[in-house]
Design goal:
β6 and β7 form a beta hairpin. By secondary structure, this protein is of the alpha/beta class. α10 crosses α11, α10 crosses α14 and α11 packs antiparallel against α13. Bound molecules: 5,6-dihydroxy-NADP (NZQ) and zinc ion (ZN).
């Protein structure tokens, strides 16, 4: 097992009706003014936002609001949020929504507590040294941002989607009521399930083999999400299935599934981020579209790992030919994605990229040939190009 640091400071308040506690949870933070940050309107439509306001008012908390976060959250709204928070002397941000809202809140939090342009942190020019405290009321099980150390923002200038990781942005608390996710469109539910599985698979496909416990957690988590994603396709109001998926979403990305690994591969995420930046696709769906092509491309670098995945996760009998077993496992996962109406190619995302756009995706993903991605097999710009081509 590799050495690791496991840090999960987020207080999780899980279950039916827990959003009623949000006022008291914010009060525990001893802040003076809160920014309530939310997305494009689902929280208004469901009445959640009003319930949050009531809870804050009952706890005597003063607040201002900023909505309008879009999926693949934009830098321009982050700047607007920083301006508003400065003007209103905000010292706590409450994100009510999904990964996009939480990530936008984290970026505003960085902007409020560090000098200079917040985009520098996403371009890796500098590292943040602080962040405003963040609280979360989660409405979609997917990105895992409610417990992760990550924030992903899209800069409209050049449509670059970039991530920034630091321990400062970990949420102080996360309120998770599975019932809140019942209003999700089926596509977002399925896309979220893929993202949760992928956060586990990115860590599972690594270069080390000696993690019996972490492997077992990961294999069971992926199987649990697959089972419940199928249930939710037929029964979107099934509380138990919503609850399993929601908890899996946090555990998949709070670091637990990476304990003892070398950190994992993450190439599929990097490949998807460029698709998200350029074509504004749902993150999980974008991952489903590229994963199979990535997996086939790197299979020969880790046949034993892919064979283990095929056997333990996809239930395929492990034959003597590890490459063949691994290939069957990849195909079985693609079949599963299809079964929950997720794409397994860029074309199935509804995009027909031109040759020039494929070149551009590879240029952007390689930071103009300045970096490689992945650890199962280190991928350079030409490898990225070939994977995008295969996924086309
Ligand atoms: O904006 P509203 O109207 O709220 O609609 C949202 C949005 O259109 C809707 N939605 C959310 N909860 C709902 C709901 N609709 C009805 N009922 C509800 N209860 O769902 C749509 C997607 O929301 P979004 O927040 O974008 O989803 P998700 O949680 O999948 O977040 C995706 C973003 O997170 C990033 C992704 O790249 C993407 O930008 N990621 C963040 C990570 C992190 N911070 O740790 C890790 C991930 O790998 C990922 O990269
Ligand atoms: Zn993800």
């Amino acid at each position: 097992m590799e050495n690791f640091l496991y840090y999960t400071p987020t207080k999780v308040v899980f279950g039916r009706g827990t959003e009623k506690q949000v006022g008291d949870l914010v009060k525990e933070q001893h802040c003076t003014k809160v920014l309530v940050h939310y997305g494009g309107g689902s929280v208004k439509k469901s009445g959640l936002l009003d319930r949050i306001y009531v809870s804050l008012e009952e706890a005597g908390i003063s607040y201002v609001s900023l909505g309008g976060v879009v999926p693949n959250p934009r830098l321009s709204l982050v700047y607007e949020g920083i301006g508003l928070c400065r003007k209103e002397k905000v010292d706590f941000i409450l994100a009510v929504g999904g990964g996009s809202v939480i990530d936008s809140a984290k970026a505003i939090g960085y902007g409020m507590t560090n000098e200079g342009d917040v985009w520098d942190f996403y371009e890796k020019k500098r590292a943040p040294k602080n962040c405003l405290p963040i609280g979360v009321v989660l409405t979609i099980a997917a990105a895992g941002s409610e417990m992760s150390n990550s924030s992903v923002i899209t800069n409209e200038e050049g449509w670059k989607k970039r991530g920034c990781n630091s321990e400062y942005c970990r949420a102080k608390f996360a309120v998770m009521d599975p019932e809140l996710t019942m209003t999700l469109p089926a596509y977002q539910t399925a896309s979220g399930c893929v993202d949760i599985m992928m956060h586990t698979m990115e860590r599972y496909f690594n270069r080390v083999d000696n993690m019996e416990l972490t492997d077992g957690f990961s294999e069971h988590l992926i199987r649990t999400v697959m089972k419940n994603a199928k249930i939710l396709k037929e029964e979107p109001d099934n509380y138990e299935a919503r609850a399993e998926v929601m908890w899996a979403g946090s555990l998949a990305h709070n670091g637990l599934m990476g304990c003892g690994t070398d950190g994992g591969d993450w190439a599929s995420h990097q490949l998807e981020h460029e698709l998200g930046g350029m074509f504004d696709v749902a993150h999980g769906a974008g991952l489903a579209a590229v994963w199979g092509s990535w997996a086939r491309y790197v299979l020969d670098a880790r046949p034993e790992r892919f064979a283990q995945f095929a056997e333990k996760v996809m239930g395929i009998e492990k034959g003597t030919d590890l490459l063949e077993t691994g290939r069957k496992g990849i195909e079985a996962m693609e079949d599963f994605y299809r079964s929950i109406d997720m794409p397994v190619s860029i074309h199935e995302l509804g995009i027909e990229p031109t040759e020039e756009q494929i070149e551009k995706l590879a240029d952007k993903c390689s930071f103009d040939r300045q970096r490689t991605i992945g650890c199962v097999k280190k991928l350079d710009r030409e490898d990225m190009y070939k994977i995008y081509q295969a996924a086309r």
